[in-house]
């Protein structure tokens, strides 16, 4: 079992920045593929960014150049640095962990990010 707890969401103006954190309970954290998903009102959940155990990173096209995913295995934590936020980034952001894409996926409860003036 892996428990994930997100933090760092909130209200920010367009062009602003936020840093999300996700703390994991597993002692095998370094083995997991860690990812951030988001779900906007009325839309399906989508993958925003992922980082695997080797540090390989992928981003959804709309966030490339604005968002940065990173992990600190010593702290069992994954981060999502979000810059130049846009109203369309408004969503609940979820932390996700899996040992591989076909394995069981663990989810956090989510943290709300609202981008509005």
In short:
This protein is an all-beta fold. It contains no helices and eleven strands.
Helix and strand sequence: EEEEEEEEEEE
How does the helix and strand content classify structurally? Answer: mainly beta
> Which percent range describes the beta-strand content?
over 45%
**C-alpha-based Rg, rounded:** 13 Å
Instruction: Report, as a whole number of angstroms, the end-to-end distance.
Output: 40 Å
Number of helices in the DSSP assignment: 0
- How would you characterize the largest beta sheet? 7 strands, mixed
Number of strands: 11
In the predicted model, the low-confidence regions spanning at least 5 consecutive residues are: none
What do these coordinates show?
- The chain has 117 residues and is mostly beta strands.
- It is built from no helices and 11 strands.
- The chain has strands at residues 4-7, 10-12, 18-24, 33-39, 46-51, 57-59, 67-72, 77-82, 91-98, 106-107, 111-115.
- Strands 2, 4, 5, 6, 9, 10 and 11 form a 7-stranded mixed sheet that branches. The chain has a 4-stranded antiparallel sheet with strand order 1-3-8-7, with no helix packed on it.
- A hairpin with a 4-residue loop joins strand 7 (67-72) and strand 8.
- The protein is globular.
């Amino acid at each position: 079992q892996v428990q994930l707890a997100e933090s760092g969401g909130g209200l920010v103006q367009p062009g602003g920045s936020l840093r999300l954190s996700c703390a994991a309970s597993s002692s095998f954290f370094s083995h997991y593929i860690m990812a951030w998903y988001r779900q906007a009102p009325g839309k399906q959940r989508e993958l925003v960014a992922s980082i695997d155990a080797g540090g390989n990173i992928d981003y959804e096209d709309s966030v490339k150049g604005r968002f940065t995913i990173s992990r600190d295995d010593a702290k069992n934590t994954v981060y999502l640095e979000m810059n130049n936020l846009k109203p369309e980034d408004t969503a609940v952001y979820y932390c996700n962990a899996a040992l591989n894409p076909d394995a069981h996926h663990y989810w956090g409860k989510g943290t709300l990010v609202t981008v509005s003036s």
